[in-house]
Amino acid sequence: MALTGLDIYKLLPKTNCKKCGSPTCLAFAMKLAMKKASLDECPYVSKEARLALEQASRPPIATITLSGKKDKIEIGGETVLFRHEKTFYHQTAIAISVDDRLNKKEAESRIKVIEEISFERVGQHISIDAIALLNNSLSGEKFLETLEEILSVSGKPLVLVSNNPDTIESALKKILGGNGVSPLIYPLDASNIEDMCKIARAYNVPLALKAPDLDSLDRLSQRAIEYGVEKLVLSPSSKSLNEMLNDFTMIRRAALKKNYRPFGYPIVAVLTDSDRYRLVGEACIAIAKYASLIILDTLDKEVLLPLITLRQNIYTDPQRPVTVEPRLYKFGAVDKNSPVLVTTNFSLTYFTVAPEIEASKIPSYLLVTDSEGMSVLTAWAAEKFTAEIISDTMKRFNVEEMVSHKNIIIPGYVAILSGKLEDISGWKVLVGPKEATGIPKYLKEIWR
Ligand code: SF4
Predict the structure, then answer these.
(1) 209-226 burial by CB neighbour count: b if 16+ within 10 A, else e?
(2) Sequence-ordered alpha helix ranges (H) in 57-187
(3) Are 277 and 374 within one domain?
(4) Is residue 323 part of a domain?
(5) Can you tell me which atom of ligand 1 is nearest the CA of 41?
(6) What is the pLDDT of residue 211?
(7) Are 285 and 190 within one domain?
(8) Residue 25: CB atoms within 10 Å
(9) Whose CA is closest to 393, among 343, 446, 334?
(10) Rounded to an integer, what distance in angstroms lies between the CA atom of residue 271 and that of residue 363?
(11) Are residues 105 and 252 in the same domain?
(12) What is the pLDDT of residue 52?
């Protein structure tokens, strides 16, 4: 739990000497709580107070970075249990596995498919975040061969899954070499924890800890911390969906509510159900509560798309709506006679209106105003979608020069703006349909 200004004040010398640049110790404590000052600015902080403050200022869940040759992901680093309390910072990363028992051709083709999986939703391009290489062959040689295949095609971050420390070490030697690559290493049980800790420390890579229950995971995490491994990821091998939900929630609560360090790390879930519906259900629960990384062995887009959609909904900052750039968008081969419609820059609004304009098959302009990411009615109520704003946006993007008419179509829900907009812009205002689905019919009727 983050310390308040008053908590910090109690640990300061309380002499108000002003050496830190603040008029009082309390003012300095407030700045520290807001992370606007550094403890080093006070020369009189005692060793004990410094230790207590440093421990308390450690984030409750560590942020772990996995870096590939090209891409990088951060997992963990969350500070709240529920998104509405603040926001979540790092969305659940999705990794797809590659089994080292595949022959060269099969491995190559699977890696290519993983590379090519890509979705576009509300203007965001989404692809698979990482590749997990599984040492199911138990052969170090096969593991390295498949790793080579992956490295020749992909720059994504990697998860190296093997119980053999020598195999992991050989793989690390192959892919490190000062190029900033940092994979997650993932042993499958606690039998070789000491060797794996040594490797994690020597190569400065994150280490996943797998245990059959939370007590064992707790002990394992404490041992890894004693070995000096700071970059950890937790992998409880829950036996049922219920148990997984319970385990993940207990870990997250212990980290956030009790500041319990052995559980203050991101969670990884390995999901292998062969039934696609159950797999989607399990992965949805893992994404919602509280996996930071999920490893799947499927390439099925019908499984991946719902997961990516759910993830996007959960990990969108509720205080910063997804937006599109305010500007004049063109649909089709527009000319001087094309209609001009106007809407706001809330991404969902734009991506609801845009396909309907396309469906009308009438080349059109869509003027998008800056409504700070609000939808039409909300923006109107908040005075972010007014006649003045629309008129200014028309001037800003030279709408007058693009067309030879002076007609602008506003959303039906804000018909009330038409009089004022006509007065200040000098354009004729046409009131469009209330719902975007009415756009094709409306355009066909009024723009022929
Ligand atoms: Fe207080 Fe330290 Fe600042 Fe002096 S330098 S006012 S003791 S916080």
Answers:
(1) bbbeebebbbebbebbbe
(2) 104-116, 140-153, 165-175
(3) no
(4) no
(5) 5
(6) 95
(7) yes
(8) 22
(9) 343
(10) 47
(11) yes
(12) 79
Q: What is the CATH number of the domain that holds 410?
A: 3.40.50.11600
Q: Which residue bears the tokens 């070789």?
A: 192
Ligand 1 binding pocket includes 37 (Cβ within 6 Å) = no
3-state secondary structure of 281: helix
Q: Are 17 and 45 contacting, i.e. CB atoms less than 8 angstroms apart?
A: no
Domain boundary among 57, 84, 101: 57
Distance from Cα 256 to the centre of ligand 1, integer Å: 30
Name the residue of 9, 10, 18 whose CB sits within 8 Å of the most ligand 1 atoms, as the mutation to test its pocket.
Answer: 18
Task: Determine, yes or no, domain membership for 320.
Answer: no
Low-confidence ranges of the chain (pLDDT < 50): none
Same domain, 104 and 15: no
pLDDT value of position 120: 83
Sheet holding 407-410, edge to edge: 328-331, 364-369, 340-344, 407-410, 428-431
Q: Which of 57, 78, 94 is the last residue of a domain?
A: 57
* Atom of ligand 1 lying closest to residue 17 CA: 4
- What is the CATH classification number for the domain harbouring 11? 1.10.15.40
| Residue 204 neighbours by CB under 8 Å, 6+ apart | 182, 231
d(CA 343, CA 375): 8
Whether residues 49 and 74 share a domain: the answer is: no
**pLDDT number for residue 177:** 62
pLDDT at residue 141, rounded to an integer = 96
pLDDT at 124: 80
Residues 17 and 127 grouped into a single domain: no
Residue 435 lies in domain: 328-446
- pLDDT for residue 145: 96
